[in-house]
Amino acid sequence: MSTYVIGDLHGCHAEFVDLLEALSFDPRRDCAWLVGDLVNRGPDSLACLREVRALGDAARCVLGNHDLHFLVAARGGRIKPRSAFASIVNAADGGALLDWLQSRPLTVRRERTLMVHAGLLPEWGLDQAQSLAAEVEAALAGEQAGDFLARLFGDQPDRWRDDLEGMDRLRFIVNVMTRMRFISPGGRLEFTAKRGLASAPEGFKPWFRFPREDDATLLFGHWAALEGQTPGARVDARALDTGCAWGGSLTALELETGQRTRVPSRQPQEA
């Protein structure tokens, strides 16, 4: 049995199939962990959702920021007719796929290893991270899920406090786990810089360059500009997004051996 952690699909269904074939993936014995952002950017978000959902218990997936963007647009009735999301909501199984995606967690954990789309604050231990993620998951599953999604977007608050409440608390948790790249030594989030490490604003560093008090292994996607690398990391952080939707590659990390397998993108190379 092997567990493969797979980077952001972003609608690149053909490459996902290529990767599963390269791995000789067998859902009867193997498990696929997907770091989120199944949809948007690439050519076939609908097929990606169907493929992952069809794997059943052989696949575990966390929500990414693009997945949440889709949920916000779909639940709010704001899907543009020619957008990447229109084919999903108009499909015969679109409602079931939407419900399935909304029920995905923000974290997946095995002992000291935790998968999350973007990262964790250095001060959040694994137990706390799972507990905070569960608060968001409960909001997505609750009767007021529509109101939660309608109020989700925003950059504030940009610092964690244990006494944060309501939407401020939930929005901050989501922003850390699905959007974070650079933070300050005081834990302030910064969302304007989205490229590589050289784009860090003054006074900010990538979140994985701050030490943790535990020996956790953190698996994440979200940051294609890293090209699967975490130079200068002070924690065991393993980047999986290698820019498939931008002409890079789609990557799988075998948890048991640490071996990486990549298949080339079929998408045009980003200039």
TrEMBL record:
It catalyses: P(1),P(4)-bis(5'-adenosyl) tetraphosphate + H2O = 2 ADP + 2 H(+). It holds the Pfam family Metallophos. Its EC number is 3.6.1.41. The keyword Isomerase does not apply. Coiled coil: none annotated. Belongs to the Ap4A hydrolase family. This is bis(5'-nucleosyl)-tetraphosphatase (symmetrical). It comes from Halomonas piscis. The lineage of its organism: Bacteria, Pseudomonadati, Pseudomonadota, Gammaproteobacteria, Oceanospirillales.
